## 1
Amino acid sequence: MPKRFVVTASEFTDVPRCAAGFELAEALTAAARQLHATGTPDNTLNTAVELAVRLVPGAEHADISEIQRGSRLRTLAWTDEAVRFAGEPRHGGHRGPHPDWENLWTTPVVRIEDSAADGGGNPLSDLGLRSALSLRLRADRRRLTVLTAYAREPRAFDEDATRIGRLFTAHVSLALDSATVREQLTEAMRTRDLIGQATGILMERLDIDAAGAFDSLVKASQRENVKLRDLARRVVDSNSGSQGRGVGER
């Protein structure tokens, strides 16, 4: 489950406020370097919301949320408390996205010109946020990941802001995919090492070969309905004197 993040004051002084032409290319290149330097998907999200405020013209705040089918929403990263719950209901019940965000299932961008234009009652206007630019980062049949920039003035995001926002989110998506793959590979390596240690312990404990030890571990995992990784950790911990039941025990 993704963690929640609060971003503090800007640490990206080398990323200029966005302009046009060559300066835009430089700004996006610098942002891409920052994004790809993050070590985990969580840090990528954390970095992306801060960079969004510096890059997207008109942006004062930003957050990243995950929207699930059935209108459930979790805010994953935010720049400040002003937008921490911008897309979420303020009084009880299940958290759900702003109604306009439903359009992001079929279009990559949703722009709110003035949240107070309908006479009030809009959750964004209640927070003093008049404009919003929501950009789809990821989408599948079950969930959306959305980056949203906010402003306190109406009609803060024009076509240039939308274009820059889409270019920026393309970089965020690539960096997020890269960080996810790195994290998965790191976890796979850790799991492989852990299972290897457990197999070696069982070889010695049960006086069997490597194939037999691994088979014993797999069967115990199925019998106890425990992930192989977790069972391997139990074996290693028990061999180190920690509390836990070994595979060979009933």
## 2
Amino acid sequence: MLLVVVCQDRATAKWAVGPFDCGTRGWTAQRTYPLVAGPDNLPVITDARTASKNLALAVLSAVAHAKGPQGSAILKAIARAVQELHQTDPVTAGYFAEFLDITLGNSPAGDQWRTDMSFVSYFPGRGTVRETAYLEGKAEGEAKGILSVLEVRGIPVPDSVRERITTCIDLDQMDAWLQRSLTVERVEDLFAEEPSP
């Protein structure tokens, strides 16, 4: 197993090299020497072409140097590299974009990153992979709730209606259907206020 630690300051990087012992009463069961990447041993990558050639290294460089004077230039180079990659491999581009968004968080570098990446919709409220999975999970739970209420109330649910309910990921719509499922007399009444699909 390899533990990689990325640090933004030299003092933390120096501490993080370890070793760290795990054990009890003088007995060491494991001794860990993390691989530490920090401002002293990660290159400053400010050229988009170089960032494109090794995007993973460029991203680690951005994290390590985010608080430094060249942090902004690194992020701009990566933004250009990710934009190019997005044309051919949007999944990988999205992974790196989201990684930096999460890692840089609510910091000046994080704010710059979200501004630089405004050309694509990787961030919260705009369809990130994690957000989509979360919404699909919530919608699945809502669908189960609607179908359970209808079942308990003895209202038959045809396959076509079941499919319509289970494939919907609009949480507002699902909430409306859940509320109506408590009082409708027929399953068709769930959709009474909606235009025909």
## 3
Amino acid sequence: MYPINTGAGEFATTVGLSAFVTMPTGHHDFGRISIGSGAWTATPQVGLIQGLGHGFFFDGAADVAFRRDSEEAGNLTVSQDPSFQLQAYLRYQVSQATSVSFGYSGTFGGDSFVNDRATGLQTRSDQLRLFANTFVTPTVQIQGMIGTDIHAEGGFKQDLVAQIRLLTVF
């Protein structure tokens, strides 16, 4: 949903609202590093695209993740406070189909509890990212991202993060 969309000019403003639901997929083994989370998560998000002129844009997004409590073996209830993510990027539109961007992604909060007792685990990371993407056809986009954590607490600090995404618009 786009409650603000001032058009396609070089100084246009677009604000979008979206929501994501994440299912408890993957294998979850409480007390160990697992691929899955073992819980449902709802994540509403607000995004902003602001044209700055001469092919430059500011892209920003803020979201909050609400994780549902999960019941684990041994009558344990695992809960987590909401976690927040902020993203801000300066994007240059090289052509109608291709762009590059550089910016910041930060994740905060998400204190964890077992049977209402704090575990001391929380989320805090600050990451710098560089993206490049292009539409190889009118409906297929490929995107690459590299990044590095400049700060991390409550988890692993990642020296190098890399991602390749293939998107099909239908």
